[in-house]
Amino acid sequence: MSTAAETSERPLIAANRADHLIFIIVTLLYWSTLYVYVPILTPFMTSRGFADVLIGVVLGSYGFIQMLVRFPLGLYSDKLHKRKPFLMLGMISGTLSCLLFTIPGSWLWPLAGRMMSGVCASAWVAFTVLYAAYFAASEATKAMSNISFMTVSGQLIGMTLSGWLAGEYSYNAAFKAGIFLGLAGLLLAFAVKEPREGVTRPPISMQHLREVVRTRSLVQVSTLSILAHCVLFITMFGFTPLKATSLGASNSELTLIVIAFMVPHAAASLITGRWFAPKFGSMNVIAVGYALSCIFTVAIAFSPSLGWLAVTQALNGLAQGIYLPLLLGLAIQPFASSKRATAMGFYQAVYSVGMFAGPFLAGFINDAFGRDYGFYLGGCFALMALILTLSWRRDNAHL
């Protein structure tokens, strides 16, 4: 008869090497589909004559849908104990997103496409829960480290393809590639291993939600994350590609700007939690990240050439890679395992506000005063986050 300790060392799903490989490929296809048009989205919309205010609305709709959908989707997934159908939902909605962008005419089609990508992104929680079930409880950190690397890799693949396809062929080539990637991911998702009874975990709980929301540290970390995502979705995932094209970047050269941001971003994500946070304290490291992000977000507006813009992206990617993973960890750190799913569901729903508010407000600011003012706004968000981090550092001295 097995002991409780032995049981905890067994994965909930007995997955072999082939099962892991299939899941990894589906995950890479998922993120590639979701990000295959991100670098060219704002130049694409500008080429169709849309004003910055409309571009801001389209960009912001991605976060707005996640505000509405992420938490209920997590509740429903926990109720069913099934994750695989939500993987398929992610692939279907990602494919539809790319398809909607290929329809000519009204700006409502890009809006519908970006809203559909918000549905796609909301399915991500199912990927993380299912993949964690392939590992023993004691290997949870390894599982999350692996899947975080898959995330950045898939995003980088999609964003690298984006500029190359648009440069060699057309904007529609990037969207069509997204359709192909999404359909391939959907077909392969049928082979992802999940038992018929599904995978259980301590569920997102409405009962726990009130207690979780009253936790001071979670509210503080969630507020910082809102501001972090305002900056991210104003810059690389927002208007930075437009700055690049205004400096003469071709669609192919946008790929280099993306790589300049994403590689330091990924590297910082890997080392911050392991080296810097244990030595200097999470809140101190987060403060440094926000200070750097403030400086290099504003610096985007003053970039005189593509070379200088690439430097701002490398340093901003590094800065944002410093604080985003730490905020994610701090969101669930104070909670018992039974409440962590609820805390994470709340945290993810809340930071979607930043995905919406950042580009939405920047679109209006750009339309009224000029495109560089959106980067000033992003710098202000980073500065606000820095001030809050320093003021809350004493409350979280143990972190």
UniProtKB/TrEMBL annotation:
What's its membrane topology?
A: Multi-pass membrane protein
Q: Does the keyword Transport apply?
A: yes
> Chief localization class?
membrane
Cross-referenced InterPro entries: MFS (IPR011701), MFS_dom (IPR020846), MFS_trans_sf (IPR036259), Sugar_transporter_CS (IPR005829)
Alphabetical UniProt keywords: Membrane, Transmembrane, Transmembrane helix, Transport
Single Gene Ontology MF annotation: transmembrane transporter activity
Q: What is this protein called?
A: MFS transporter
Species whose genome carries this gene: Paenibacillus albus
